[in-house]
Specification:
mainly alpha
Length: 561
């Protein structure tokens, strides 16, 4: 049946009145011949060749005739493609596209695609597109095809030009922005010499598509290389507003650093840091912590209210993992509260004390916190709160002399508020740190006498004797020990005391009655060894430690008489 159709159209072609009608009939016959199967493709090709030769004999005619010729040639090209004759098909398609119409545009584009994908002749395909563009300019599809073909050839320069043309011809702003961004990226890959043009293309892209993050990121990188820090700050701030979480914080922080260090615009930098701290995620993150540190550092220079600074420090303390750094921040917040005007920070001293206590909880014994607590207590005249502060400082200060001085001050405060036990403890701490301190010893001795702490007084006097160098002081301490023993304090005589007594001047008056009383109390109800010890003590007290025991016995008998 298909063969009969082919014969019918072939006979119609032979009987045609004009060459154009004859060519149309031959193409119909070729079509039906191909439809019958691949076995008769040679016959179909013969019909196509004859139709081609017939078309070559046509003389120029009317516009209607030219339109019919274009259609016939398009059919001829399609059949040639079907017959695996792509080169001739391209020639036919280009031959029929002899006018500047949209129909011809499609024909030429088809020819270019055939050349690229069937003949694998990319340069020739690009030539066809270039010719088409010259005759039919401002067509976005041509630029898109050129971009694709240049990309397949890895021709960066060609891609850049095609992408730039495509960005200028597309109607959709977002698509135009994408094309310009592609051109900018290609240019950026060529090196820093093209940075100015890259920046221009990125600016055009962001103008067309305000939400184009990729274009802004490339613009920021390019502006940094160009030294356009005003652009860097502006674009990073804009980028941050379309991001969230840690990324937003990071961008705002980077913009603030650029504004501060590159532009010297501290006001703008603070605004960005405040926004970063406000918009950042509530989760503890390194970016948020770094941002708050930077903001706190900038706010120390002033130009912000104490309330704002305090708010930043409190946030920073909550975001800081390191205990020592947290204590440092809390003390700074306490300083702000302690010195801020009451109209800016309500409850200044109370809040300062609270922050100091938090700092001490985070870092026990943190000295700046203790010192601030002490200053607040002194300013308020609250000595009862100052004593424990001083006591903690005694355990914290690194230099022994300063610790001893603070312990002495603590004892004075304790005495002023009537806390004698605490004063005694503080004075004992002074002597532990500075055994030669005469003031501390005198005050402690007075307190011990008040509460009749004779044993402790004897122990402290003996220890003071170990460190005393002045002979008169050593003699006075020996007399104190004798007086305590006379009261019944059985404090043992050690080698240091024996040595001190042996060094006493012989001419120094000795109270034999006091010595006798001490010996009598020591010997009461004791054995011979205790008696001998008492006799030796008397001999030492008299400055005659080297005398014989018999002489000592005689003196003892004389004293008892």
């Amino acid at each position: 049946m298909l063969v009969d159709d082919a014969q019918f159209f072939l006979s119609e072609a032979r009987a045609a009145a004009t060459p154009l009608e004859q060519a149309e009939g031959l193409l119909d016959a070729a079509f039906w011949t191909l439809a019958d199967g691949g076995q008769r493709s040679r016959d179909a090709l013969a019909f196509v060749d004859e139709a081609d030769r017939t078309l070559e004999t046509l003389a120029p005619g009317t516009d209607d005739d030219r339109a019919r010729v274009r259609v016939v040639r398009q059919r001829l090209g399609e059949l040639l493609l079907e017959l695996d004759e792509p080169e001739r098909a391209v020639e036919q398609l280009l031959g029929c596209a002899d006018s500047r119409t949209e129909l011809d545009l499609g024909t030429r584009v088809g020819a270019a695609l055939l050349t690229a994908h069937q003949l694998f002749d990319m340069p020739r395909a690009l030539e066809i597109l270039d010719e088409t563009e010259r005759e039919l300019p401002q067509r976005a599809c041509i630029a898109a095809l050129q971009l694709s073909m240049h990309a397949r050839r890895r021709d960066v320069d060609g891609q850049i030009e095609a992408a730039t043309r495509l960005g200028a011809r597309l109607r959709c702003p977002r698509q135009r922005a994408s094309a310009l961004l592609a051109a900018a990226r290609l240019l950026a890959s060529r090196g820093a010499a093209h940075d100015a043009r890259v920046a221009t293309l990125c600016r055009e892209a962001t103008t067309l598509d305000d939400g184009s993050s990729s274009a802004r990121e490339l613009l920021v990188c390019t502006a940094e290389r160009l030294g356009r820090w005003d652009v860097v700050v502006s674009e990073r701030a804009t980028l941050a507003r379309v991001r969230d979480g840690a990324e937003r914080t990071r961008l705002l922080y980077a913009a603030a650093v650029a504004a501060s260090e590159r532009l010297g615009d501290q006001s703008r930098a603070r605004e960005l840091l405040v926004e970063a701290s406000r918009e950042a995620s509530r989760e503890l993150s390194a970016d948020r912590t770094i941002t708050l540190w930077r903001l706190a550092e900038m706010q120390r220079g002033g130009n912000c209210s104490e309330r704002e600074r305090l708010d930043t420090l409190v946030k920073l303390a909550s975001a800081t993992w390191d205990r020592a750094r947290r204590a440092e921040v809390l003390v700074e917040a306490a300083e702000v509260c302690a010195h801020a005007p009451s109209d800016e920070v309500v409850g200044g001293d109370e809040r300062a004390v609270n922050y100091c206590e938090q700092a001490l909880a985070s870092e026990p014994g943190y000295l700046p916190a203790l010192q601030l607590l002490g200053r607040i207590a002194r300013r308020r005249g609250d000595l009862s709160r100052l004593v424990p502060v001083y006591r903690r400082e005694v355990e914290t200060l690194a230099i022994p002399e300063r610790r001893a001085l603070r312990a002495l001050e603590c004892s004075e405060l304790s005495l002023r508020i009537g806390r004698l036990a605490e004063a005694e403890e503080a004075l004992g701490r002074v002597l532990d740190l500075d055994p030669e301190n005469p003031v501390a010893y005198a005050r402690l001795a007075a307190l011990l006498r008040v509460r009749q702490g004779w044993w402790e007084l004897a122990r402290r006097s003996a220890r003071q004797l170990e460190h005393a160098k002045d002979p008169s002081t050593r003699a006075a301490l020996c007399k104190t020990l004798d007086a305590l023993r006379a009261r019944g304090t059985e404090y043992p005589l050690d080698e240091n005391e024996r040595s001190a007594r042996a060094e006493l001047e012989p001419c120094e008056p000795v109270d034999l009655t006091l010595f006798a009383s001490a010996a009598h109390l020591a010997l009461r109800g004791q054995g011979a060894s205790r008696r001998r010890d008492a006799l030796e003590r008397i001999a030492a007290l008299e400055g005659r430690a080297g005398d014989s025991r018999d002489a000592t016995e005689r003196r003892w008998a004389r004293i008892e008489a």
